Structure formats: C-alpha cells, structure tokens
Amino acid sequence: MADTELYKALGVSPDASADEIKRAYRKMARKYHPDVNASPEADAKFKAAAAANDVLSDPEKRAAYDRFGASWDQPRPEQTTRQDDRWQGGFAFDERDVNPDMFRDFFGDRFGRGDMPRDQHAAIEIALEDAISGAKKTLTLQSPQIDRTGHVTMQTRRIDLTIPKGVLPGQNLRLKGKGAEGADLLIEVSFRPHPIYTIDGRDLYVTLPVTPWEAALGGKVPMPTPTGTVDLTIPPDARQGQKLRLKGRGMAAAQKGDLYAILQIVNPSKLSPEARDLYQQLAKAQPYNPRSKLGV
Amino acid sequence: MKKASPRSTHVEVIETLSLSELTMFCDTNADWVVKLVEHGVVTPVAEATPEWEFAPKHIARARKAARLMRDLGLNVAGVALVLDLIEERDRLARRLAMMGG
Hints:
The complex is a heterodimer. By secondary structure, chain A is of the alpha+beta class. Chain A contains 9 helices and 11 strands.
C-alpha cells in the first residue's frame, strides 16, 4: 500500500521516527493553529495535521495505516472483535482515543467523555455588511449520534438564524435550546476581512486617497460608508495619514462606534504639460524643505 | 440583549457570562478561570457582583486560551504571553492595513 497522505500532511517521510512525527506535528500545530494563523488555509492544514498525528503517533494505528492505507480503519475479518466500537464514518478515529476537544466545533461539545452534552459551540464567519444590516444565515452543524448498536453516525442539522445588527467580531450569540439535548448553542462570531474597511472594536477605518491639491486646499470629497456614500470635508493643509472622524458612523452596537478616514495623498500617474507648468510655479511660490530633520 | 426576528431562531448577543457559565463554555473548571485571572489573561467586569462576570472580549480570550493550551500543550503563563503577542500582532496588522500597506 503506497498511501502516504497522512505523512504528507505532516511533511515527513513514511520512514520517519516517532520523534520526528511528534516534532513535525508540534511545529505544524504552532504554525497553523486557527487561533494563531488567520489565513483561510490554516484551519484545514491544522486539522489535517491533527488527524494525521492521531493515527501516526499510535504505533498500532500507524502499522495498520502503513499496511492498509486510507482504509486502515475499515472492519476486517481478523478485527471483528474491535469492529463494534469503531466509527464507521469517514473519520479515521477510534472513539476512545480521539481527543474530544480537538473537533469540538464540528462534533459538539463534550462528545466522547461519556457524559451528556451541556452546551454546544459553533463558529460563524460573516461579512461586515451582515453585521450592519442584520442578514439571515443558515448554520450547518454536524453532531454525533449514537444509535442502538453503539455506532456513531454524524447528523447534519441546519439552523436558520438572523445575525443581530451591530454584532462585533469576538462576540458570542446564544441560540436558546438549539444545542444538543436542548442545551443552548453558543456561536462565536468572526468577520471576513473586508476590502475597504478595517474594524477595531466598534470603530471602522477606511483609507481615503486624496490628491495633493485636495489635501492642500481642503474641501468636500466623496467617501464610502457602510450605509452609503457621504461627502467628507477635508480641512485645508491636510497631512498624509491624517485621521478624520465621522462620529457614530461605525458599528451600530449598543454603543455606536465611529468611522475614521485616514488620508492618503496620491499623485496622478502622469502630469499633463499644463500641470507640470503649475507645479513649477508652485515650486517657486512655496519654498519648503521637508528633509530638514534629516539634516540635508 | 437583542430581539429575534419572528420567523427564525431566537438569537441573543451575549453581553456577559458568569463564572459558572464561562467554565461551562470553555469546558473547564473554576480553578482554571481563577488562574487566567491571576495571570491577567482575563479580567472580570466588576467585583461588585457576588459572582464574577466576564465581558465578550474576555470570553473570547478565555476560549482562545482554552484551545491553545489544549492543542499546543501551553501552560497559563505561556498562553498569557501568546495571547498578548497575538493581540499586538493583530494591532500592527490593522495599522498596516490602514496605511494601505
């Protein structure tokens, strides 16, 4: 059997020692843990590494995997005595050995400990716009169910919910009675990165490009806000990186956040001959050395 | 506490969790939360109430701490440092994004 997917998930060769596997797993876990690494592929890489480690760190399971490949966990005639307490799903775990917490967000809380689930956790990633206007979402949850023969099957449930207006990243939602066994379901909210806005607490930030003359002369420029375009008044002699506040235009949380425009002075990519003439006049009319602090 | 729309599930934004709710939420015990408080990982809202209450930011930190300690084998001091560094990194990443970097 030349199945080496699990070794690849840890980036080790199939003849790696137990120590090498342990080291590789720890390194992957540090690098790709979803709480450390927010990139979209990190979560999948972390879970793959954890699943691979679960099999390869156990000599018995590793031997079975080396021999049978991906189907190492399927029941075989000589294994009938152990067959009943194995999962029959697509997950290569033995219920007694699986770390119940590792996959809590998928499987529901407290699974595999023998006691009844009390709460269930899930996570949802929403767009900034969803939090501003309060969008309807469908949450898909997988929870394990144990049937009469003791087998575990994954049950998929769909829950429709409305994202409350003004919810902030890191906040939790409570869905009464929607968890396992009628417990509450707690949902941790995170935001997808937004192409225009950066969120910090309940405040929003937007980088607003302005021309050198808009910055120098001041005046009104159009500016995006989550609820539509507004005219922002720029003061004369505005600086690069200057922060302008639009009070109460941030997130509509219980306490309203603010929206900040951060000015970014941008030159046209090519000047017209007339503009070049005007710049030459400007150079004469306004002597100024921005490098005086550098001593030149 | 937010209202629910009539047709879908009742959704409530959690404003605070009590100590016992937090221990359940993090699948842990009160001693563990006390350790987090001692290391300054989380801080209860006010000490006026008979039971500690935790605000959303601290609930999120406790959950993160629980996951990191479990998955990376960290102790409380280690996770306190990691969370501080992650917060600092996120703050710098936000500043960089604001500067159009």
